[in-house]
Backbone:
């Protein structure tokens, strides 16, 4: 049973470009969470999604960031017009339901140059 | 919102000794406390968790204790081995009534080094 798959593992974008990060949850998991980790910091919650629904986006910046989890395909975290401060590791986690533990992927390390 | 403080930020122990990492949380409604191990270049891996109706939980060399009154919980690793070297994160979670959210609030991490 494959774990949570994130791609790409590393992503370099110039300021002003768009970044698209993908997350395929574990088989049988329909709950997805995105977290951001800055250097030397813990993970910060961004958004919680179920299939076709955003449940909690209280940790998402109000502008430039969006997330989706379509009926088919991976969850996507989209960052428009990236800035240097967006450079971080972005982790996706998935769970069978909201009461069980979340399993993390290996992350996408975004570097904005 | 919830705030989780974690100490120490770095910890070095001799192989075979015990390691203890402590966390405090601010929201008395938090009811789930997982611990994650993160190795370099990898995602966090759940190693043990505890719910608020339990005071202690043990899994081989790893144990976690929870003091709800004082709002703190600790990770204990006994007979440490070099492969235990990693960054360890504590986290706390509160079920938000009606929203069904499951967001975790993480501590800033403890870098554990086990010296052979």
Residues:
């Amino acid at each position: 049973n494959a774990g949570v798959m994130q791609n790409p593992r590393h992503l370099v974008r110039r300021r002003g470009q768009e970044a698209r990060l993908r997350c395929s949850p574990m088989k049988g998991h329909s709950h997805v969470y995105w977290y951001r980790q800055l250097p030397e910091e813990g993970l910060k919650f961004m958004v919680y999604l179920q299939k076709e629904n955003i449940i909690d986006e209280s940790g998402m910046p109000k502008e430039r960031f969006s997330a989706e989890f379509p009926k088919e395909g991976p969850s996507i975290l989209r960052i428009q017009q990236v800035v240097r401060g967006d450079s971080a590791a972005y982790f996706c986690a998935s769970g069978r339901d909201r009461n069980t533990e979340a399993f993390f992927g290996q992350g996408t390390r975004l570097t904005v140059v | 919102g919830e705030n989780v403080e974690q100490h120490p930020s770095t910890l070095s122990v001799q192989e075979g000794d015990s390691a203890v990492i402590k966390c405090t949380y601010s929201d008395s409604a938090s009811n789930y406390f997982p611990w994650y191990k993160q190795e370099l270049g990898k995602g966090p891996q759940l190693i043990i968790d505890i719910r608020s109706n339990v005071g202690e939980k043990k899994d081989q060399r790893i144990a976690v204790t929870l003091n709800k009154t004082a709002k703190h919980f600790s990770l204990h690793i006994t007979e440490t081995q070099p492969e235990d070297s990693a960054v360890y994160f504590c986290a706390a979670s509160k079920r938000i009534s009606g929203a069904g959210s499951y967001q975790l609030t993480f501590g800033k991490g403890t870098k554990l080094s086990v010296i052979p």
In short: Residues 49 and 55 of chain A are 5 Å apart (CA to CA).
